[in-house]
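A note from the maintainers: we've had questions about how concatenated examples are separated. There is no special marker in the raw files; a new sequence line simply starts the next protein. For clarity in this README we add a label.
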Amino acid sequence: MKTENVPNILGSLQGRLVLFTNRFSLKGVLFAGFAAVILLGLTTALLAEWTSYRADRTMDRFMRVDNKISDLSLKSSIAMTNARKHEKDFLLTYREFGFNEARARYISRVLTNLADIRESMKQIRLLTDDPQIVKQTNAVGKAIDQYQVSLLRMVERYGVLGFRDTGLEGVMRGKAHDIGKLLKQDYLLLHDLLEMRRREKDFIMRIRDIDAAEFRKASDRFTADLAGYGERKEDIRQLILEYRSSFEKYVFTIEEIREIRKSFLKSVQAIEPVLDQLYIGSFARVTEALENMKKTEVLVGRIKIVAGLFILILSLAAAVAVSRSISGSVIESKSFAERVASGDLASRLTPRGRNEFTTLSLALNQMAESLQRNKAEHRKAEEEMKKLSFAVEGSSDWILITDRDGKIEYVNHAVEEMSGYDKEELIGQNPRIFKSGKHDEQFYEGLWDTILLGSAFRAIVTNRKKTGELFEIFNTITPLKDEKGDIIHFVSTAKDITQQKLLEDKLQYLANYDSLTELPNKNLFIDRLHQTIARAEYNKRLITILSIDIDKFSFINDTFGSGRGDKILQEFGKRLFSALRDGDTVARTGSDEFGVSLIDISSFEDSVMLAEKIMNSIRQPFRIDGEEIILTASIGISCYPQDGKDAFELLKNANMVMLKVKASGMNNYQFYTDDINKKAAEFVRLERRLFNALKNDEFLLYYQPYFDTDTTGMSGMEALLRWNSPEFGLVSPGEFIPVLEETGLIIDVGRWILKAALGQLKEWQGRGYMTPPVTVNFSAVQFRQKNLGDLLEKTIRDSDIDPKMLAFEMTESAFMQDVEFTKSVLDRIKKVGISINIDDFGTGYSSLSYLKKFPIDNLKIDISFIRGIAGNRDDAEIVSTIISLAHNLNMKTIAEGVETEEQLKILRRLRCDMVQGYYLSRPLPPEEIGKMLKGS
């Protein structure tokens, strides 16, 4: 056969094939072809099914049993871990949140976790009858029951212990208070009682046998000292026995808890290994099943590849045969469609054969006839469109149509109502005319990217009216496409949700912010602190948490009224906010409590500087309704990560320190440190020595004279306390006076100072010396005594000394703690005839409007200004201003810390009245002062 005849032969065969296929319907041809393909496919599937029979059995075991056991074992392990976590959470927080709240919050979760484990063990037993697995699940169930019983017993014991006003702690606290009321002013027994309280708290905090033993010793010492007590001795003895009995019950309960803890720890140790064995065994069986399944899948895959090739070849052959049959009919149908599209509705197709294209030809002929009839119906459709137009125009929903470039072509009446623009003002404009500036460029880029891809864009959009007001709409922008699929218009539909959005925003605001100060509330503060800790852990930076409480705020409320109290809280919050850096947070966490988180702290020194800045900001006078109010605050500070790992622990530790600051005199800040117990112990030891020092007459007075600036004649002298300790020698006042003030011993020591100073004056006068007035220093703790005026008056009367020979001196900051109280006490002291000095003037925050109301005689200029007066122009200007201020208010000035002749000369030129310092005289014992007085 010649090569050139091959195309003719193939063409002839194709023609015959087309004629042959036209004898049958297209459906029949396709059915025959696909039936052959399906038959081969079924044969291949049966072969694949046979080869994968073993894989199905393996997977059945995997899916029904082993995998389920593995999941249940892992779920049980996680539940056990959570139970232990909640158990520890209860122990960590029951003292902070209260026993009932901590039990409800955490122990209920533990019981839920245990119930989950029991249910998992039950399901495992239902899955298999393997004796080993059944034994293991039964062992877990038994251990869980033991753990639950022991845990509930332990929780009940913690409820017996209580905290502060509940349980045994509450009983002990109540008994101690009752004893304290009966002791009145017996300081030895009060000290013994204080020692018992400390030992009790040491044991509660550390749970050490040595602390319990120390408590018993303190109790025995109290009982021994009680023997010499007079009034109500038996009542006190009965109370101390009840107090000690409660403590012993507390110790016994702690021992019970220890034993119970051993029991449930033993149960836990029995549970976890069994759960691990269940998980490891089931996981090993699952791994083996997966390996077998992979091998089988490889074999099945190879079979499917071979079968697929056969199916592909057969399908291609069937496709060629059918396509040749279809192509001719398609070409003829296309030509007919083009004639109809050009308006030739009279054109018709000639049907051929018996296949579906014959049916299609008949249908197309009917279509042409139908189009002729539809011309009349077209007019009716136009009328319906008018109705639709009226409906769109009258809709309450926003409907706006633009072309593809965004130029507005149509707006309904609702758009005019919502935007305030007339339709004529909007047609031809771009929708950016409504742009509010509330959305960034990324928002608009996302909008255009979505609609240009042919998808609808939905979002809540903030628009701006013609008047400038903002309004919110829920907007849907839908692309409209032509017959080719090209976008030709955009339809924007929307509902006005302005009021709904405002309500949602208000609810969200109230959930996270304090309505009075508009600061974050405690919930938002904790949430932000969690986030800040996560960032700080990543950046390896520190965080500082401040718990701030306004001192004596209840007194401020009572004095100025709750309305002004609210204004003070608002101004206080603003003051804190203005003192912070970007990124820091201030929140109102309680009635008069605020929390501050300082982020991105690089060192401890930075925390101190920021705390100082906040403290100085608070100390500035507040002007409320035209009146100046001085506030102070107590601040507790904790630092991340050394003082806590999470937000709750950090805030709790800061609150603890803040309460300590309030108890120790307020108007201060203090950090939480890890060695606080050691410092507390040192404090107790020093307090005991100071208590004995007063009894053993170890205190003595030195006197530092101050002199007339012009004549250098002695104008007065300041009595200075010294402690001559047998153990340490002469101790600096800076080391022990703060302890006296914190413990309240300064009250008794202050009385001793006053009597000793007046007694020394009496002695010098008896020798005929011309003595100047003696100044006695008073601390803020002494000044707050309600009977201070009576004490001074009685002491002077008993000493038979002229009140003019005594001067009262206190620091500027102490004067300003409570202005009204200060004025009433100073008026009483002045009435007695005693002079009044302000010490360290210039370093505090005195308001001149209050200063002029106080009956002050002398201002002592702080040593920090005198030290730099010769070389620092600013210091000299400050000193000059203070002297002028004092003289204008009919007061005299005393410059302290004068150490050079040059300083003395400058003070003379500035007209300072008196000077005091090492240049003229150091503090001297009484005998040295006596020689000076005798020589004068």
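[label: protein 2]
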Amino acid sequence: MKKATVIRIFAVVLLLAIGAAAFLSLGRPLMTRSEAGEAEAAEAEMPTALAKHLQELQKAIPGTGGEAGEGPGSAAEAAFMQRAYPADTISVQQMDAAREAYSNIQGRPFPKGKGRPDTWVTVGPSLALYPFTEFRNSFGYVPNDYLAGGRTTDVAISKTCKPGDCRLYVTPAGGGIWRTKNALDGQPHWEYLAGPLGINAAGSVTIDYNDPTGNTIFVGTGEANICGSGCVAGVGLYKSTDGGNTWTGPLGKDELGAKGIGEIVVKPGDSNTLYVGTTTALRGMSSTCCSGVTRPVPGAAKWGLYKSTDGGATWSFIHNGSADASLCTGDLTEFNNGGVCSPRGVRHVELDPSNSEIVYAGSYARGVWRSNDAGATWVQIKPSLNAALIQTRPGIAVAALPNGKTRMYVYEGNIGSPYARLFRSDDVATGAPVFTDLTSNSLANPGVATYNLCTGQCWYDLVVYTPEGYPDIVYTGGSYLYGENWSNKRGLILSTDAGVSGTDMTMDATDIYHPNGLHPDQHAIVTNPNNPYQFFETNDGGVMRSSGEFADVSSWCDDPNRGITSATRLARCKQILSRVPTKLESMNMGLSTLQFMSLSVSPFNVNLVQGGTQDNGTWQSTGNPVKWENTMIGDGGQSGFDAANPDFRFHTFYDASPDVNFSNGDIADWNWIADPIFGTGAQFYAPIITDPLVSKTMFVGTFNVWRTKTWGMGNMTLDEFRQHCNEWFGDFTVQCGDWEQIASPALNSSALGDRAGGAVAAVERAKGDTSTAWAATTTGRLFISKNVDADPAAAVTWTRLDTASTPNRFVSGIYIDPADPNHAWVSYSGFNANTPLTPGHVFEVIYNPAAGTATFTDISYDLEDLPVTDVVRDDVTGDLYSSSDFGVMSLAAGTTSWTLSAPGMPYVEVTGLTIIPGERKMYAATHGLSAWLLNLP
């Protein structure tokens, strides 16, 4: 069925579904945090019917709900364990060795006689469009068309900002540092500045306002939000004195490296005095990843607050949430909240606006502290809301009052009780400040505006900001409050009465159902120095700008679709919508910063590419190297096409969660097929493929390997399938998905001997026949099946190939020789240092069917100890390509030295490679700089 037909079929149903969904989502009383913070917050980052279905099944929901304790989905937490296994830590020495190994590869000459290699080029999207659809509206998620960027951690604006000359810097989490010279322009032009940096993971950016030219800036590498979704450890601090054109650093590598830098403060009048807040962070990304927990990095200096008085040449550890910094250990006991110091570090730092010798610091689970002697001694001025929870984060903002005293705003929350709220003290510079709790959970109280803004993930989404010179203005932000009918989701709140009340800045006044809206998950904000009401805000969808003007849309509260029946609720709605931005605008055109997990290419069109991204769903190119369109919201993992049906697509959220589509990816036609496999135990992004030769056949790896031969539809007709399993308005009265297990015992079973546990890390089908498949686990087991297409499913058999001499580490990639299904190349993540008796990162494997055994040849050669995230082969030339946390390497056929694959790509985490040898193209999915293409020589 063609796309136009599908849209016509769904049109009538859709009109009914939107109103019903709005009432179901919004027509409910204000709930407690335990009721609303997880369940309601999850609903609208998933299609309507699917969200309800998963809630009924009591499943974790992709998007803002169901996250692990330290991050949305724990993707990077899991990838960290992928690098560490079989150990549970990654040391600074290992990180440095891997970076040095890649640097050595960059310096090697390309093999002679191979011809001049081509150059990596970005293929976007630099115009990443959430297209308009009725399925996204003001009752849910990003209600209008929207140009997206990747998750962006921080923003800094020039104090001399004016029309035609307004420099703004942003730090995408995995995309380095970007600059626009005119943030007030209708479509600002962005420049990527991070090429010279040793890593693209960035957490903070600060302009040194002591420099009247505005050219001195600092960038802190490593994301400090302690999340498990890409909060990658950095290498230290970088400095530029020419506006970001060139850089020196990393400064403080030994003290600040291997952590996240969340705050950089330069002392007014003294550019040599710097304060830097650091937190724990993680290392490594890949297309699939396993479960695990974060660990402190062996060899890293203690997390917490550091100070330099010589411009960054030397650093002193001065504080980490206790009165005595010498008690802070940076060890596992402290990490597990067993010590007096903060278990995750200092996230927020401010200097007193009237006396820069007074320093304020907010640390995870240890509240807010003050030093009146430039960091020499410390006293706690506000205890933690819940010191037992390491995720309890106090954001702070300070302002000078006309009476000479200093006001402080604190917005604080965690993952549980008590709910997040706003505090204010009007005298914090001396003595024992008294903080007033301005937040209420009662709709009758105007303090409900700041109630629970960051829901259950304040360690990740938390904003509090007061513009200089305007102490009564305070912005607070967090994540969307889905299911709330008396607001516009309260992702960002503006108060002009010192936090007593507020109005909703999350959506603008352009349309009642499809206004422009902020992307969920807010991270940082600044305002125009000349207009405290014009804000520039960063979030999981990039960068947004407000008009700086307001409109009263309180009449929207009377819309019956909101389902407001209470007079109290209606009154609060009218108050909180009485002042919203006249317009919100995306500033993301030209920001190629999506965090792709993998890419798939159509067998019918080599320029038609799909890819899943963290926090921004699944995208599809249009054959245009600039513009891609979003085809599904939420998290995005694996994706793919069918061998025979050019209209077919599949994508996944997280876990084993495939959807199928028969309309070229049209958002109306995504249908759920994961009931038998979702939640059965899998990688964060489970490996899922379609058969390269056999239409309708798909495979997925969880704790076992599963197969469907019907696209998951079973014996339903397509019309029946859509009626029951469509994600937007399916009735879900039947099981959606007909997956069958095809391995007994399971591939991770202890019945198969050593290296038990973990999950399936890779499943690949041979292109040379219809019956051979290879699979691997996170613990280093490798298998081959020679009858994977057998019926019944129980007849499928697997032969284990790994031996005691092969690495018991995470298998990150399998590439099968199309000319010989018994021949493959296999890559391993993790470090040789953790398996010294079984080293190696890339192996050639040849299976002998007669003997039932395989020969492994280590072809890592001079890769050194560089974990590999994927491996592919150019079947035309015989050249191999492998990816890493820093870029892509190549091994020319007949040689024994790995070199840089091609110039053009900066240091960036490459999560996966997709090669089409016959078309001479290879794509790379990067975690922060979108998609890249190499035209093969």
